[in-house]
Write a structure and sequence with these properties.
This protein is mainly beta and about 700 residues long. The chain has four helices and 39 strands. The chain is rod-shaped, with a radius of gyration of 69 Å. About 30% of the residues are buried.
């Protein structure tokens, strides 16, 4: 009896300890609002909940059912469970950890916040045989596949006898029906890292290698590596799918349902099934089901074989599920404690979508045609063809024209024409009219540009030609009056084009008189213009004509020369002609009475004539009388005075003697001695280099 009583007391004591422990666990657990939204496990990779425990709303003590505020058994007494003396003993029997992998649970007290005291080994043997290193619920932003493989010793699987649920996984809070279906959209599974862990010999054979799969990890790694702007300069290797069904929207839809017995018994295996169906219209790819071994159970086996995930969860890789198809996985567990048990199963899958487009390359080709030469003042037309021989549309095509200096356009030297768009193999033809304004050679530049097309340049060499006139006159530049002068007039074309309708005009000054001209010249006495006409004067040719004139006026005279041709081509020249005269003085001495007797008188008349074309100036006359003649009197022209110097009669100089003018000097003498007497008369002028002397004899006689 004493032994029985002792055993009974131990059993009661253990029960009270368990109750106190549960109450203590309940006081430590945060009070979660059951009304918080609870969604499917398909969440963003970086916010995915721990697969081994219920969502936040269901985080309650796994060893007692969640109770509402008005549920039976929940009373103020229960709210004050922390004062229960059995719960005060909880530090001697610490509650099972919520995370088998050691991850921190929101709301859970840290070791520093717990009541002081040692933490002995789990008395219920719920800790895994090999502790996993602490991991975070939030995966890295980027985790390239097969990077940072954990050490095999750190993730060794527990033996079947110790492999129990180590998380606080429970059915979702508020979940009335454990068999309720949850419909999920596509999700990216977790990153998969494969390696060979250290597995004890007693691990069941249907538990596969540790494997993590996350189809989004690679993309996150790329994004982290290249930044928000993405990579640049890398040539891609992707190709469109050969299956055309991947074009367009891809809408796989999976439903997941977890089925468990309504009641299981401690020590008796139970089966949890997860049914996944594809209710969408396209296949779901890379389907994975993840689940945690429920707390308070030990894993017996999985069907089909599951692998271990990074959080210690079970992973079934189902691969591809066609529309309308499905798959079922099973988890066989052995309950080890009483209470509500359960876990959250999630399904992850991917889908593929493809599209294709055609990469095209537009091109631009510019062709221009037009006359290579243009006559000045003529309008020339350039025919411009811009085409797109490429495989894509050339957008925003613009054509630029840079007019060279020898050409002119009313809009200016920089022209721009918006062509618009050119489809493949399409071309447009334009006409550009330019006017030649300056002779010379130049390059007409056209530039075509468009979006995503290299600039195209096209040059057209153009020469603007023009006739040119030059005129010249050769002949005497100085001429005496009344002496004909013949001149040669020349007109030449040193230009680059023939000169047509050439006219050569010579306007005679008043001091020159027209005599004659060759080559059918026309003379107009009214205008004193001599004119020649030439139909055409080729390039490099020279035409000559002759003109004969007679100087009739002394002085400086200007020949006005003018050459004209079509296209308002005009050239002018002036030639100075100097006309001078000659003072040609001639005089004669005549005795009026001859012979005369001694004592009689006779007169000498000296006539001076300027038979030249120029005034004679400072005309001086002197007469020397012989001894047989005696001076009687003298008379000069006008008021010219004289004086007798010995036997010489000297007249004052005559200021000027015009051409064709004559003057007469008279000297009266008396015969003194019989004989033949000669009077010597000397004439000088400024225009004469030396005096001119003449003699006249007179016979004087006497009667005996």
């Amino acid at each position: 009896h004493v032994l029985r009583l002792s055993v009974l007391a131990v059993i009661v004591l253990v029960g009270w300890i368990a109750i106190g422990y549960a109450q203590q666990r309940g006081s430590d657990a945060p009070d979660y609002n059951a009304d918080e939204p609870v969604g499917p496990a398909l969440v963003a990779d970086d916010a995915r909940p721990d697969l081994g425990r219920p969502t936040t709303a269901s985080r309650v003590n796994p060893y007692r059912p969640a109770e509402s505020d008005n549920a039976p058994g929940r009373s103020p007494t229960n709210e004050a469970a922390a004062s229960n003396p059995w719960s005060q003993a909880a530090p001697s029997f610490p509650a099972p950890p919520l995370e088998a992998a050691g991850a921190e649970v929101p709301g859970e007290r840290s070791p520093a916040e717990r009541p002081s005291g040692g933490l002995p080994a789990d008395p219920f043997g719920l800790q895994p045989a090999v502790n996993q290193p602490p991991t975070s619920n939030s995966r890295p932003e980027s985790a390239p596949t097969n990077d940072a493989i954990p050490d095999a010793a750190e993730v060794g699987l527990a033996s079947p006898s110790h492999f129990e649920g180590e998380s606080s996984s429970r059915p979702l809070a508020g979940q009335g029906d454990p068999n309720e279906r949850i419909s999920l959209g596509p999700a990216n599974p977790d990153a998969r890292e494969r390696f060979e862990p250290s597995i004890p010999n007693n691990v069941p054979g249907n538990v596969a290698d540790y494997e993590i799969s996350d189809h989004s990890a690679g993309s996150r790694a790329v994004e982290t590596s290249f930044g928000a702007s993405g990579p640049s300069g890398d040539e891609g290797a992707g190709r469109p799918a050969s299956d055309p069904s991947l074009d367009g929207p891809q809408t796989p839809q999976l439903s997941i349902q977890k089925v468990a017995p309504a009641e299981v018994q401690v020590g008796k295996p139970a089966v949890f099934r997860v049914e996944v169906k594809n209710t969408g219209t396209v296949p779901a790819l890379a389907v994975e089901v993840r689940d945690q071994v429920p707390r308070g159970t030990r894993l017996v086996e999985t069907k089909p074989a599951a692998s271990r995930g990074a959080q210690g969860d079970l992973v079934w890789t189902l691969g591809k599920i066609e529309p309308g198809g499905g798959a079922t996985v099973e988890m066989h567990v052995m309950p080890v404690v009483e209470g509500e048990i359960g876990s959250i199963a999630t399904v992850h899958f991917g889908t593929s979508a493809s599209t294709r487009t055609r990469a095209t390359k537009p091109e631009l080709v510019v062709n221009v045609s037009g006359p290579g030469r243009a006559l000045i003042d003529e309008q020339m037309t350039l025919t411009i063809t811009i085409s797109n021989p490429g495989s894509g549309v050339a957008n925003n095509v613009v054509l630029e024209e840079h007019v060279p200096p020898c050409l002119q356009h009313p809009a200016g030297a920089e022209l721009e024409y918006e062509v618009g768009s050119l489809a493949p193999n399409e071309s447009k033809t334009l006409e550009l009219k330019l006017t030649a304004v300056r002779p010379g050679q130049a390059q007409n530049l056209l530039i075509a540009r468009a979006d995503a097309v290299a600039e195209v340049r096209r040059e057209l060499p153009i020469e603007v030609v023009a006739p040119e006139l030059k005129i010249a006159m050769s002949g005497p530049k100085s001429r005496y009056l009344e002496r004909e002068a013949t001149y040669e007039l020349a007109v030449s074309n040193p230009g680059t084009a023939p000169a047509r309708d050439v006219r050569l005009v010579a306007e005679l000054p008043r001091g020159l008189k027209f005599v004659s001209a060759n080559n059918n010249a026309h003379y107009d006495p009214e205008t004193r213009i001599v004119q020649w006409a030439l139909a055409e004067l080729p390039t490099g040719e020279t035409g000559t004509v002759q003109l004969t004139t007679l100087p009739v006026e002394i002085g400086q005279h200007k020949f006005q020369l003018r050459g004209t041709a079509d296209r308002a081509l005009t050239v002018k020249e002036e030639e100075n002609i100097s006309v001078d005269g000659i003072a040609a003085i001639r005089f004669e001495v005549v005795d009026v009475d001859d012979p005369v007797e001694v004592g009689a008188e006779t007169n000498y008349e000296i006539r001076v004539l300027n038979q030249g074309s120029k005034d004679a100036t400072r005309v001086s006359l002197a007469a020397e009388l012989p001894p047989g003649l005696e001076f009687a009197a003298a008379e000069g022209p006008d008021t010219i005075r004289h004086q007798l110097q010995g036997n010489v009669v000297v007249f004052e100089p005559l200021p000027g003697l015009s051409p064709k003018q004559d003057v007469t000097y008279r000297i009266r003498v008396r015969g003194r001695q019989a004989g033949d007497h000669r009077i010597r008369v000397q004439l000088s002028a400024a225009e004469l280099q030396s005096p001119v002397t003449k003699e006249e004899s007179t016979r004087v006689f006497s009667d005996q």
